[in-house]
User: What shape does this take?
Amino acid sequence: MTLALHLVAGVDFNTLPQQLVNGLLLGAIYALIALGYTMVYGVLRLINFAHGEVYMLGAYVALFVSYFMGFRPDATHPPQATILNLVIMLLASMVVCSIVGVCIERFAYRPMRSHSRIASLITAIGVSLLLQYGGALFLPNSPPPSISESVNPFHGQSKEFTLKGPSQDLVMLVEKAKPAKDQAQAAYQGWLTSHPNADIYNLPADGQALKEAQQSSTDIFNDAEHKVEAGGVHLIIQTGQAVMLVSTVVLMGILTYMVLFTRAGRAMRAVSHDFDSAALMGINVNNIVTFTFVLGSSLAGAGAMMTATFLGTPLTTFYGLAPGVKAFVAAVLGGIGNIPGAVLGGLLMGMAENMVVWAGYSNYRDAVAFLVLIIVLLFKPGGLMGSSKVEKV
Amino acid sequence: MRFWSIRLASVLIALGACVLLQALVGHASDYEQRIVVLVGLYITLSVSLNLINGITGQFSIGHAAFYQVGAYLTGYLTLNYFSKQPIHNMLLWVILMMFVGAIGAAVAGFIVGLPSLRLRGDYLAIVTLGFGEIIRITVQNQPAIGGSYGMNVTPKYQSVALVWLLAIICIAVCRNLLKTAHGLPFLSVREDEVASQAMGVNVTRVKVTAFLIGSAFAGAAGALLAHFEGFITPTTFGMDVSFIILTMVVLGGTGSITGSIFAAALLAYLPEYLRGLKGADGQPLMIPGSNVVAWLVAVAVAVTLTRLVMNKYSGDKLKKLALYLGAFALAVVSRFIAAFFLRMIPVMANKQIPIDQVRMVIFAVTLIVIMLLRPQGIFAHHEFSWSWVKGLFKRGEVPHSAVSA
Amino acid sequence: MSILELQAATIKFGGLIAVNEVSFKLEKGDLFGLIGPNGAGKTTCFNLITGVYKPTSGDIIFHGRQIQGTPPNRIAQLGICRTFQNIRLFPALSVLENVVVGGFLRHRTTLAGALLYLPSSLRETRRLKDEAMDYLKILDLDGVPNARAADLPYGMQRRLEIARAMATKPELLLLDEPAAGMNPQEKQDLMETVKRIRDDHGITILVIEHDMRFVMNLCERIVVLDHGEEIAHGPPEAIRNDPKVISAYLGEPV
Ligand SMILES: Nc1ncnc2c1ncn2[C@@H]1O[C@H](COP(=O)(O)OP(=O)(O)OP(=O)(O)O)[C@@H](O)[C@H]1O
Ligand SMILES: [Mg+2]
Assistant: This one.
């Protein structure tokens, strides 16, 4: 109990809604990446370690496309940004990532399919290292470039919501301070006009007293007004981020539709249920695996394009490392192989991370993902929505 | 009697070899000494992870965490208490620290081992990985031990002999385990937990024991690293280090001690060797970007062709060998063709890449290539022995599984 | 006193009552059969006895002592060992090593001694290996001690399971469909081997088997389960003519 008190002692509940919204946004991105991990795991039982690097490449594709369209950071007159530019970047990222994902599967994972799972895992680690370090040789990464803000048509736009106004006491304080300030100001100004030759840096005693009175009353007023501004609960949502959240939800909707209601999606679910039987039932598992990689990788590409554009994070070839690991943790948290689980896990992970930042432990934001995971797995070994199958003996 | 004399002799030989090694590299440059030490430490790390991962089958991929616990615990003790305690002999103190590091890491290993009682496979893997990250991030945020900047460990103590002695002990312990019946429960847990339990194996105890022993050795290695380098930072123990240790185990062949040793030596040496390569001007070697890509193309060609021969051709061994050689030759040719075309692309031709940056790429490529060509690891399940090597060259015979019925 | 007794043992998996109030008694030296159609709950009975599952209600008594809830490895130490219907050997280990794992629970050395490679642990290892060879001989597997278990043909794998279980020196041996997948000659040999295990080693045996000829010729007493319930109990002749049993098997000639 004392520990809990200690933990929350330094937090400011007025910033909580903002942090929750930030957590939601971050979580949505994690969820988008986690879907790729979970689907691939579902069909191949493989942890696709290179997924984070596919995400990284997606961000670079967005960068290059934005350069190509004339939004270089050094451009003096960048073209007027439109939504079309963003759509082109998004599609380009998705397409390139799909191709990369499919190639990785075809050339690195498929030959390993008949071998032990740990061998595939090592191959995946190898591919991931190759993309990180090999990419670093040729992609611009130092100094880390970032996508120019000028490509974002919503740049600088935001909407502020006031959830709760400042407290009445504060408002009263301002109302009281204002006449005092005005009065002192008028008195000082009056004195100054009556002594036109006075040197304001070296006033006689009476002038100096008036000046100080004017200053201190102004300070009190400014301070009170500042408190009123900070006192309420506000929520600032950048338009770009709102667009990002909506797009993420739309993409997830499309994915759900594809998985639940298309032939390929149904086949994918069959393969993920039982790979060998599905093959025997005449499903072309290779096509389904390719389909899965296309879906997962294009979601990663979309996520990367959006984070790189709207959050303006600088790019290095390690751009995918942290989000990749966290998204994977999110997938495991939700129950790996389970699609709604990945979304739930991603959102939880994003929230947890921002809660830790909010509580003033931002240095530990990378550790909290794992802490949550370990705690959850100890109580639910199959993840939140996964089934922990009891082995039949 | 005979037994004990052999035992005494082997212990003496081990000690002697370590002292000899120390004498041999004593005059070498710091850089060379460091390579010898790193190889020894990585052997300890990979052989101890092999116990958990390869022999007991518990998919732990956060071994660097134990390494880190050993290093930081003993580094802290040395920094703060060495001058205040009665042992003023640095050798004895470092030996003591090896034990302390081992115990500290074993406690951590015990804590990480507990989830292994409930979790399997990938789930356990991610938990061990996460545990490593939690330790690293926690260390990073403790100003008392240097935070993310790192911690000085003074006085330093650079002993090649101790490092290799630890490696030998670690190897000996694992080998002894496998040579006696006590190793079988570990192997059987890897093979089938339910059946093991039905045969009276205390699966819980076996798993926790594997974690205890494995992490203890990693902790002792950490202690030696801290005192050798005299300076440790949290990044020395990141996820990539865990992956490298895991790679050594798998590359050597999971479960094979000799495989782990071989792969550890190779993978610890290779990057350091590449780092040390110098160009004609004495500066670190630079390679044109086009050549790097051309080599990658060559490797891809070689791997593809080799796999083709491996899977499609089942004929005379000599002809097969010839085909492999042909594949190799084609790969070399393709390297030059690729280089020719790539040089026309200005980005590739003009870019000079220091070899130091290429080493992780080489590392990654080695991993992928070995997995594609020999997924069971270099030594597979086997231990290196002459009879096994001979078996490899006998025609059409599979070593060790001559089933009669 | 009986060696093993089930008293109204019951287990439910969600809504399914896999074993429902089953009670029977095994005397020392019995060769006891447990039969019933597919899904009758026979294997589940074994899982209850060996501690894989804990009964929802009822008691399992071994030598006058309740053993339900005891972990499987403890039960093996108490002297009950089993084979598995879906063979569960240690595939990458050799035939001999598989059997040594079975014998290991009666070892007498410490792990520390093994890590130090003390002579005592070497002696113990040699002793376990010799013993394992004896069990391999009994099951006629002594020709292939160094083969990988996974490389053995099916019939041999089934026999290896029995050898491994015997190596734990059980008082009570549970065999789950030991003859499944064997040809008539192999079945005949197996039947004799099982009889010998009981006669020469004094091990009480409880066997599940679908092959009626095998069970009727081998066992002295039989319990029949159907849908988790015990429907008949008695010597083979009585079972053979029991109308309930016949109808449970849907008129299949017995
Ligand atoms: N762990 C479990 N969870 C849920 N149901 C189970 C479990 N184990 C067994 N069952 C169910 O209990 C019933 C009895 O199974 P059991 O394996 O005991 O049958 P059996 O008599 O051995 O059949 P067979 O002759 O086919 O081996 C079956 O319907 C089975 O599906
Ligand atoms: Mg059964």
